[in-house]
Amino acid sequence: MPASSAARSGVLAHLPDRSGCLPDRSSGTDPFDLWRPLYNIWGATEVIGSLTFGLQHGPVARIVKGARIRLVDENGADVADGEAGELLVRGVNVFAGYWNDPQATEESLKGGWYHTGDLMRRGERDDLWFVSRKKDIIIRGGTNISPVEVEQALVAAHPGVEQAAVVGIPDAVLGQRLFGFVKLAKGMRDTIVSEILRNVATRLASYKVPEGLRIVDELPRNGLSKVDRNMLQTMAAPTDRAGQIRGALSLPKRPDERSARRVARNR
Asked: What pLDDT is recorded for position 168?
């Protein structure tokens, strides 16, 4: 049964997707046309059952009754409500350790708390809003930028954008600069890239707007179907002071993939 028909008939209850957070506009009928709202749920094998799905659209989850969580800064101190901090979880459902890997266990389990590596901020009541993987945070001029926030803004900025991803590229002055990749909906022309950047500039602070944008046929993904940010970083060639691309930005070709197509610069 087609997904939209299943949803209209009340059959569709769950749509598992382990690739990451669904963008805000995916929480309705666009772009999946499922006739049912979609909600995110956070999960980890090491701490199954600590969080459940959120009741709001966007990357939000709820704390399960009885679960013990903390959001901490780089020094291990609890952050204030509304501020981003690494999610720590403790409880009877936390794993005992990684099989035959005491080093990884020691790095993840500290004082009985499992360090998830995910940055979240506490909202109202028991809501936790996902910010980013800690390792994926982009630091531009000393300011932390969540790639998830920028990616959601890119998708929301233009109906022709199906998927988006951003990465930080090294910069001698700012530390990192933002570079983005988008997959367009079928039939969209490459010439809309400048329009996408103009639109997203109305949704984000100027320092969060990607300085370049490349259209790709598919975003590279790893074995868990998550966007392969390491691959994207190798695709994002450095720029010179004039903002010109110095290298070819293309996805390594496979039998079912074509190369990246077009780059637009944000000026």
From this structure: 93
Look up residue 224 and give its two tokens. 């868990």
Closest CA to 218 of 253, 245, 192: 253
212-225, pLDDT tens digit by residue? 999 999 999 998 78
Distance of alpha carbon 4 from its chain centroid, rounded? 26
Q: Which domains does the chain have, with CATH numbers?
A: 39-134 (2.30.38.10), 137-265 (3.30.300.30)
Report the share of the chain in percent with pLDDT over 70: 75
What pTM was estimated for this model as a whole?
Answer: 0.69
- Identify which of 209, 223, 155, 213 has the alpha carbon closest to the alpha carbon of residue 185: 155
